[in-house]
Design brief:
The protein has 10 helices and 11 strands. By secondary structure, it is an alpha/beta fold. The strands form 3 sheets. Strands 1-4-3-2-5-6 form a 6-stranded parallel sheet, sandwiched between helices. Helix 6 crosses helix 7 (158-170) and helix 9 packs antiparallel against helix 10. The termini are far apart. Bound molecules: pantoate. The site of pantoate has 10 residues, from strand 2 and helix 6.
């Protein structure tokens, strides 16, 4: 397994792969890998086969964190991540640094960003207004540096994958976006590097996210497919259930069209739901197709 830290070396490698017709799949990550990530790596391998190459990027991207968010505290364990990548048969781990990803940023001489302006306004974008600008910028840069035919993202970040799909289409980027299913703990909590922040008491209550999603799905499935369910009513019931969970503080519950992310006043089977819940300062997200 090769480790590449230099952006020029990464691009040279990627151009070499293009030239000799080798298919590349990229799995962009911020490290602290867990079974959710390994499922993305395995999906990438299935896409390119044994003749293709799987690249995993590990980079905690500062521009997708707001000023009061957890950039400094974001969990990091490179040695463990490299062991996982080796075991998964990854070909290249790309480990860029801030100076090469954002050249001139410290002296105020980095000024080009990629911004999606519709899908990124609601939900995560409402609470974290600069987050998606950081994500779309870094993902574009990773695409330019690794030149993948496929890039694999997790469905837990549903809005992120919708925005990346839209960006790829809008900018005619020659990358096929694959979205792999959320991997869950045995009790249903979606795997996330941020779960490491939870105290044992918070961890025990964090199953409220999947409980609420499943409760909403049950209610929608029991409703008439003609009339559906009024979003305001359903939301109120779910909010009350979260209020009964003492350590949980709701950020948002959203019901939306799965393709356009447009908010819905009536939900039916096939509509999508996402939520974000705080436990102390830790913010967890999850989503479900209803
Ligand atoms: O989903 C993530 O881990 C990050 O947002 C990504 C796509 C690696 C960009 O930094």
């Amino acid at each position: 397994m090769q480790q590449v830290r230099n952006v020029k070396a990464m691009q040279r490698w990627a151009l070499g792969m293009k030239k000799n017709g080798t298919t590349v799949a990229l799995v962009p990550t911020m490290g602290y890998l867990h079974p959710g990530h390994t499922s993305l790596i395995q999906r990438a391998r299935r896409k390119v086969g044994n003749e293709g190459k799987v690249v995993v990027s590990i980079y905690v991207n500062p521009t997708q964190f707001g000023p009061n968010e957890d950039f400094g505290a974001y969990p990091r364990d490179l040695k463990r991540d490299l062991d996982i990548c080796r075991k998964e048969g990854v070909d290249v781990v790309f480990l860029p640094d801030d100076a090469s990803m954002y050249p001139g940023k410290d002296s105020g001489h980095f000024s080009t960003y990629v911004e999606e302006s519709q899908l990124s306004q609601s939900m995560e974008g409402g609470t974290r207004p600069t987050h998606f600008k950081g994500v779309t910028t870094i993902v574009t840069k990773l695409f330019m540096l690794t030149l993948p035919e496929f890039a694999v993202f997790g469905a837990k970040d549903y809005q992120q994958s919708a925005i990346i799909r839209r960006m790829t289409k809008d900018l005619n980027l020659p990358v096929r976006i694959i979205v792999a299913p959320t991997v869950r703990e045995p009790d249903g909590l979606a795997m996330s590097s941020r779960n490491a922040y939870l105290t044992p008491e918070q961890r025990a209550q964090a199953t409220i996210l999947i409980d609420i999603l499943k409760a909403a799905k049950r209610k929608v499935q029991a409703s008439s497919s003609q009339t559906g369910l009024k979003t305001v009513t359903l939301k109120k019931q779910l909010e009350q259930a979260i209020q009964r969970c003492p350590l949980a503080r709701l950020d948002y519950i959203a019901f939306f069209d799965p393709d356009t992310l447009d908010p819905l006043s009536t939900v039916r089977q096939g509509s999508h739901m996402a939520l974000a819940v705080y436990f102390g300062t830790t913010r967890l997200i999850d989503n479900i197709r209803l």
